[in-house]
Amino acid sequence: MPTTTPALIADSATSGFHQGTIERRDLRPDDIRIDIAFAGICHSDIHTVREEWGPAHFPLTVGHEIAGTVVAVGDEVTRHAVGDRVGVGCLVDSCGECEPCKDGMEMFCTRPSVGTYNSQGYDGEWTMGGYAQEVVVSERFVLRIPDSGVSLEDVEKEALRQALIATNSNVAEAARRLSVERGKLRYRLKKFGLK
Predict the structure, then answer these.
(1) What is the distance between the alpha carbons of residues 94 and 148, in angstroms, rounded to a whole number?
(2) Fewer CB within 10 Å: C terminus or N terminus of the chain?
(3) Which tens digits make up the pLDDT trace of 40-60?
(4) What pTM did the predictor assign?
(5) Structural domain count, the chain
């Protein structure tokens, strides 16, 4: 039975957001449920809600730069455990069987891949993004954020800064940089005028 979670929802391209609830699917064997701590804002969220890139499916919850904590795992999950800090980007599923998927190029899935929001999943349901309290994602599309003494708040700040200069894998890049270069965080914050 699907669960509901609080979310920010747009009902049309001109409605703005309102608070409400959305449904998340039951865990499949390879899924994880994430309690979202932060979701960055990307201009693609704005373009999608305004239908500047084509028609959107409403109601819509956007957000694909997600950082949070695993709260439940499916029976076949091996990469993540309850309590892990994780990030999710712009994809949440793919067939996993076609050549692009087998080559680690899931964005070119021939079925095709499933976006974090405004995308029809293989179950026929429309995906809703990270401007919510929880999200359910196939474990293959979840990146672990090392627990290296860096808070999720700092990871999200770094992800937002990365969004100023890059357009993909912001959460993963922030996690990598912070876990390797912990001492340089303050310098980078000052460099971008954000601290």
Answers:
(1) 30
(2) N
(3) 778 889 899 999 999 999 999
(4) 0.78
(5) 2
**DSSP summary character for residue 27:** P
- Between vectors from CA 133 to CA 162 and to CA 179, what angle results, nearest 5°? 35
What is the amino acid identity at position 4?
T
Q: Which residues of the chain have pLDDT under 70?
A: 155-195
**Angstrom distance (rounded) from CA 98 to CA 125:** 22
> Domain check: are 23 and 75 in the same one?
yes
How far is the C-alpha of 88 from the C-alpha of 83, rounded, in Å? 15
Question: Which DSSP helix (H) or strand (E) runs through 67?
Answer: strand 65-73
- Where in the sequence is the domain holding 77, given as residue range(s)? 3-144
44: helix, strand or coil: helix
Residue 16 confidence (pLDDT): 87
Gap between the Cα atoms of 45 and 64, Å rounded: 8
Q: Across the beta sheet with 134-138, what order do the strands follow?
A: 134-138, 31-40, 65-73, 85-88, 142-144
In angstroms, rounded to a whole number, what is the distance separating the alpha carbons of residues 9 and 16? 8
38 Cβ partners below 8 Å, 6+ apart?
A: 66, 67, 68, 152, 153, 155, 156, 159
